[in-house]
Predict the structure.
Amino acid sequence: MSDVGLPRGWVQCRLGDVIAYGSTDKFEPDEIAPDAWILELEDIEKDTSRLLHRKLFSERQSKSTKNQFRKGDVLYGKLRPYLCKVLKAEQDGYCTTEILPLRPPKEVDAGYLFHWLKHPTFLNYVNAMSHGMNMPRLGTDAGKAAPFVLAPLSEQKRIAGKLDALLSRLDASRRHLDRVPTLLRRFREALFSAAVRGVLTSDWRSEDDPQLAGTRPISGRPAKTIAETTPQKSQLTEWLDELPTSWKVLPASDVVRQGADIVYGIVQPGPKLQSGVPYIRGMDIVDGKILVDQLLHTSPEIAQRYGRSALQGGDVLLGIIRATKVAIVPESLTGANITQGTARFRPSDLICTEFLAIALEAPETQRWLHAHYRGIDMPGLNLADVRRVPIPLPAPEEQVEIVRRVESLVELADTIEAKYHAIRARIDGLQPVLLTRAFRGELVPQDPDDEPAADLLERIALSRQSTPVARGRTKSQGRSELRPKAKSLADTIAAMSSDDFTFDELRQAASGDYESIKDELFAALADTNSGVAQFFDAGSGSMKIRRVSE
């Protein structure tokens, strides 16, 4: 490796040259105290290294082997390393074996190491060297060979301190900025609520004509006649009693065009076709828009059998399985269809398309719909319930005014949200820039009197020669002694007495330390030609390994 381009006194080396990468102390569950901190990967927020949860063994009741870590260790998540889960241990504890405790020698500052593990150069390397398709992980040998830039110790501390200060300010900016999406969501909910309650246009009604002479009240049933089966559900419609006196309330079935009932669509659309009749699924509706480019197609013959649910521009769609999302069908999708997870509303002359969409998306309507879900694993709505959902109905002129005001304010919220995403992206882009500058020696001044990094590296090597690293425990401490590697893992698997076996059984039979065996096994599982596979054994309720014929 070359030191070209590095500041004077720095050296480029491998991570394994300075850290005993992969050397860990392992403990079984029965060896861990109830009040011990147990760290899992999901406890660390990706990229930010923020600790999301701190749970004790008594809370987690873990049943798997854990790595022990000490205060001051740098904890590195080797599973799916692109998530960049790195944490500085502020106290002793235990972690999943997918997290490696890295204990720097006195010649390496822990904060400096922590920031290097988030550096773009290191991340690019580990992402390229990870093995496994669905659950990629960094192997021990690859981790030892990872690039590392070593600076003089005093400068390491200055760099770590500067990065801590700058990145903490970035994190604070993120936290403040990330309140914006929640505020915008609440704003949109309040806006749609005000729209369907008549609050949004209260000034328009009074200013337009105190006697409401400019409106044409709609004849319809009052809210109280839309009966509910339980007192709890009756509370969902109490707000309708407070609507303006010129408004009426109708069930959804009474605001759609005659002869175009509220219906769901195709039950079995058949194989995916490159062309044909497009159909809309619930997942195709995002933020009130239909993602036209991702629509699937069915054959004209199947679509014809579901002609009752064929679409026209201006129809309103409502998701009725899992998510009650709302969207308006554009003119370009006239003739398309929907699936059984979506209901179609074709507005009558009583209600304009945009106002119907607002009414269905309003939090009051959404609560009503969710209260009428049926099923647990896949909650959905019965069409009979969908057809009787109460729809508040102002005069046509007021509907137009409500739509105008809602669209204007939603456009403002969308503009703010776009600015939020742009600023958030700029903040996220600052971290790799700062890290790059820091490890080029551009963030803090160099001191010519600092001890060169080459001397540090030599001292680390001499220390290892005189005191070999020993993080594992002996048999007298409750763990089996580490044995010299005598045969490959493939030979061990071939010699197993049964085709199906557990990882613990493999560990007992194999030579080598825990991490090496685990890394070699995962590499084998990722290789379809290795003659080994993993499966879930329903009888024991656990994952097992199977030796398969080539």
Notes: Residues 2 and 77 are 28 Å apart (CA to CA).
